[in-house]
Amino acid sequence: MKTTISLIKADIGSSPGHVTVYEPLMVKAEELMQEAKDENKIIDFIVFNAGDDTELLMTHQKGVDNEEIHKLAWDIFMQLGKEAREIGLYGAGQDLLKDAFSGNIKGMGPGCAEIEIEERPAEPILVFAMDKTEPGAFNYPIFQMFANPFNTAGLIIDPKLHDGFRFSVMDIYKNQFVDLKCPEEMYDLLALIGAPGQYVVKYVDSKDTNLGRAAAVSTDKLALIAGKYVGKDDPVAIVRSQSGFPAVGEIVEAFTLGHMVSGWMRGSHRGPLMPVSLDFSQCVRFDGPPRVVGLGFQLKNGQFKGGVDLFDDPSFDLTRARVNEIAEYIRRHGPFEPSRLPLSEMEYTTLPGVLKKLQDRFHD
Ligand code: 13P
Ligand code: 13P
Ligand code: MG
Ligand code: MG
Fold first, then answer.
1. Does 358 fall in a domain?
2. Which of 16, 91, 139, 363 keeps 20 to 30 A from 298, CA to CA?
3. Number of domains in the chain
């Protein structure tokens, strides 16, 4: 049987400011997802949060880009957004950019990562969700997992991984894709994805067609309407593991640097990415630092079994301590680059307003 895993997310409003989701609305989201499960629209689901983003993880047999599934998520987010407005949450309906659903949630504000798979007898699935950053923030860890033998030992010693993987990279300004194979085209791949503000890994596929898709990352808001770039969006990813894919431990190892990402404070600053447990999935200091949460399961007939909060583990303490130190260092730069994003990326913030005010005051 083919199973589709859909991870669809939106910021529907938060408290206080952009810190975290409002717990009663998470409960509401769970009730609405349970209704959909009772009506057999989906097989299984999990609701969680990454900072101020509500994450709807679900399984079904309807394939990717399915209208009914996307509408289900859209309707739930609309209902939550309406309640968030009544409660007075901050940025209520922030990611709900359209009034009416039109067939696919892409380009409407929410983010979406989906994979359709033929379940293996044992199918380990990991999902990751980030807050206060952009989809390109996944470039570094996805490269580590699927292409760097210093991270993923299996690329060297496991014949099932030894041929490497194929990366589908999106140019988010042109809304175009290029497929690059690793290890053969690794340097070409790095030339692109080392610039995560423009080139974003969208999919990773096994070269073994029997295994198929290995990972999917959300890039939605970036591809908004007619391919026009509209700024940053907190991303999600789905990653398959083991038996031809990286081991669970190789996948989470990719998050141990605390790598620098864009999107901290007002979407306009750089900061190190901190892997945290769900209990610490809130963005406080300077609205951050940017965070990533991870969940792992065994999937069986579309059902999530044995869920684990992946970063709820002292083996990530050193990364978190390093992130705090780097955050402290970069914060001391205040409004100076590289703490603040370069001008090219500030174009989508309120900075152009300041420049406009000064435009008549520039002189020779
Ligand atoms: P597989 O079972 O996926 O081959 O992985 C073995 C392993 O030792 C992982 O650390
Ligand atoms: P979000 O994109 O998570 O809503 O954060 C917005 C922001 O400006 C935080 O400083
Ligand atoms: Mg927000
Ligand atoms: Mg957010």
1. no
2. 139
3. 1
